[in-house]
Design goal:
Number of strands: 14
Radius of gyration: 19 Å
CATH architecture: Alpha-Beta Barrel
Number of domains: 1
CATH superfamily: NADP-dependent oxidoreductase domain
Strand content: 15-25%
Helix content: 25-40%
CATH class: Alpha Beta
Oligomer: single chain
Structural class: alpha/beta
CATH topology: TIM Barrel
Order of helices and strands: EEEHEHEEEHEHEHEHEEEHHEHH
């Protein structure tokens, strides 16, 4: 699989494995499925793996670290995130997590973008994964804490980079404009933008992507299926968009894109992955998966050739902008 390097040389495979499912996103992921996810990703050439303390209250980090432990450390790249510190909570251990993961709530998340909070978060993540270092650290969803995250928080990450603890730093968010603002304010290497450069929402193209390209900041595209609407060749009537029921007009638009895709011999998910990878600022597309079948499916989507005429036809039909074509 091809790689694209960040400005200081960190190589990211064009497809990364998002490890939220290793944290039991929405439902249990078995140990066998967790093994299959990492093994099949590795066999398919994926060498970039993304996790976070938020994913399963640490379960994703533990599972991913255990499955990478026997692989050569210099042959893969791992990113995790800071901003949510996990603290023991025996009083809630009998409950289930209430933020989308099927795990016991024996720890709770606490927002903390202070320098001390970030240093503690990194130390905890190293312990959970068993790794000796991380390659990328992202501020995680600092939407409501942006003032502190974009000053003290990113400052702490830059300090860790200067000490050689991590190779690259940035932020991951579901909105594009604050990521652009962070690039203007701080010396970041990479940002992860979820759901904002897709076939249905290219808002990151207005400011974030051109600015990132100009400053030499890599963009990792996540959420390219918009949480489900673009993940099947034909969106079902109950498809989700950004984790909510998809509006009828977006389902109709996705079907119109699927019509043109099928005429060119490819599928809607194939086009969704290729769309993000076409932009020169995008260094990797991270795709979540549970088990061998889903990883293999994602790899097939990522390697399907897309005819150039398809993009022109989508633009002509008003389904993507002429700039994106």
């Amino acid at each position: 699989m091809r790689t694209r390097a960040l400005r200081h040389g960190t190589p990211l495979t064009e497809i990364g494995l998002g490890a939220a499912q290793l944290g039991n996103l929405y439902r249990e992921t078995t140990e066998v499925e967790a093994d299959e996810s990492v093994d099949s990703a590795w066999e398919g050439g994926i060498r970039y793996f993304d996790t976070a303390p938020h994913y399963g209250l640490g379960l994703s980090e533990r599972r991913l670290g255990a499955r990478l432990a026997e692989r050569p450390r210099d042959e893969f790249v791992v990113s995790t995130k800071v901003g949510r510190v996990l603290e023991p909570s025996p009083d809630t251990a009998h409950l289930r997590d209430d933020e989308g993961f099927d795990v016991p709530r024996d720890v709770v998340r606490r927002w903390d973008f202070s320098r001390d909070g970030i240093l503690r978060s990194v130390e905890d993540s190293l312990r959970r994964t068993g790794l000796d270092r991380f390659d990328i650290l992202y501020l995680h969803d600092p939407d409501h804490h942006f003032a502190q995250a974009s000053t003290e928080g990113i400052g702490a990450l830059i300090e860790l980079r200067e000490q050689g603890v991590v190779s690259a730093v940035g932020a991951g968010m579901n909105v594009a404009d604050p990521l652009a603002e962070l690039i203007r304010r701080a010396d970041v290497d990479v940002v992860m933008c979820a759901g904002r450069y897709t076939l249905l929402d290219d808002s990151a193209a207005a400011e974030l992507l051109p600015l990132a390209q100009e400053r030499g900041v890599g963009v990792v595209a996540a959420g390219v299926f918009n949480s489900g609407l673009l993940s099947a060749p034909r969106p079902p009537a109950d498809a989700t968009y950004d984790y909510q029921p998809a509006p009828p007009e977006l389902i109709a638009r996705a079907n119109a894109i699927a019509d043109i895709s099928e005429r060119h011999g490819v599928t809607l998910p194939d086009v969704a992955v290729a769309f993000a990878l076409r932009h020169p600022a995008v260094v990797s597309v991270v795709l979540g998966a549970r088990g061998r079948r889903q990883v293999t499916q994602n790899l097939d989507r990522a390697t399907t050739p897309i005819p150039d005429d398809l993009w022109l036809d989508l633009a002509e039909a008003g389904l993507i902008s002429k700039e994106d074509a």
